[in-house]
Write a structure and sequence with these properties.
By secondary structure, this protein is of the alpha/beta class. The chain contains ten helices and ten strands. Bound molecules: adenosine-5'-diphosphate and magnesium ion.
Length: 292
């Protein structure tokens, strides 16, 4: 996969910085991150359910958390605990059965271009569009940029992430890592208030996954976008997040909220990191201890 993925290794810190310049909000746009880094998103006692004809499935129960500007906020919990549903609720696709989701002091009532989701699946890029068309299309449709403006911004963005040589390629010719990079470039080019990522690297091999995590952190370092990131991997949560919300098994309830800015790829495998992983594992799964 690595050999068929030449664009990946070319992405340098410089390229990330250039991308940051490319996607930094233009003067006419509202800033992606408030100057004060104040509270951007508030999830206030939210419960979420799926109703089928036979039964009601409660996916999340009475969940509250706040996301501040430039946070890398991670939702961590076992499979089925409602992480994706919470993300979909923030995106505006699943309305809460109780509680409220606030974005910039306004209740979320549906989807909007201020929240863009990057999913795990590699097929989130329409296969009949080239890489360039994939990045330009939402700029045209949702941001209502003119054809030339959208084309130029999309090409510029791709150029800066080292994907310009693949601008006219179709998604099926790209590796999984490159498809995810296109999906991230497409999302960031939209300058959302919050970037929502649902296990975006879970289907990648370990080396590509680590490279993508590093690249995401480099991009964050330059752009300081606000990230709400879902994972079931404790290691990934510690490396990617500055704050982590621990959710119980189904239906998801808040177990704890932790700071994790002190961890990085460099600390993985060290004693402090291992202890932290063990602590989190206990908090996630040791119900007896939590119930005390
Ligand atoms: P996670 O992302 O943490 O793995 P999900 O948010 O996907 O969890 O799912 C939470 C719960 O809701 C699970 O029990 C799942 O089976 C259920 N669920 C998810 N999607 C649907 C759906 N469309 N209809 C009914 N139940 C669903
Ligand atoms: Mg999920």
């Amino acid at each position: 996969m690595g050999a068929a993925d030449p664009g990946v290794s070319r992405v340098s810190t410089d390229a990330a910085r250039d991308l940051a310049d490319a996607i930094r909000p233009r003067p006419a746009e509202p800033p992606a991150v408030p100057a004060t880094s104040g509270r951007l998103l508030a999830i206030d006692r939210v419960s979420l359910e799926y109703r089928t004809r036979e039964r009601v499935v409660r996916a999340a129960h009475d969940v509250s958390f706040d996301v501040y500007g430039a946070d890398r906020f991670v939702l961590l919990g076992p499979s089925g605990c409602g992480k994706s549903t919470l993300l979909k609720a923030v995106a505006g696709f699943v309305p809460p059965v109780s509680g409220t989701i606030w974005l910039d002091g306004e209740p979320v009532r549906g989807p909007g271009t201020d929240r863009i989701v990057v999913f795990q699946e590699f097929d989130q890029l329409p296969p009949w569009k080239t890489v360039l068309q994939n990045v330009a299309f939402p700029l045209r449709v949702a941001k209502q940029l003119g054809r030339r403006e959208a084309h130029d911004l999309a090409l510029h963005t791709l150029h800066k992430v080292g994907l310009a040589p693949f601008a006219h390629a179709y998604p099926h010719t790209l590796s999984g890592g490159m498809k995810q990079r296109v999906a991230i470039a497409r999302a960031l080019a939209m300058q959302p208030r919050v970037l929502l990522m649902d296990e975006p690297f879970a289907a990648l091999d370990a080396l590509t996954r680590r490279r993508m995590q590093e690249e995401l952190l480099r991009l964050w370092d330059d752009v300081r976008f606000t990230l709400l990131f879902v994972t079931h991997s404790i290691d990934e949560a510690l490396v990617v997040g500055n704050r982590i919300l621990l959710l119980s098994p189904h239906p998801g309830r808040v177990r704890a909220e932790l700071n994790s800015h002190q961890h990085s790829h460099e600390s993985v495998g060290g004693d402090a990191f291992r202890d932290r992983v063990a602590d989190i594992h206990r908090l996630l799964f040791d119900t007896a201890e939590v119930a005390q």
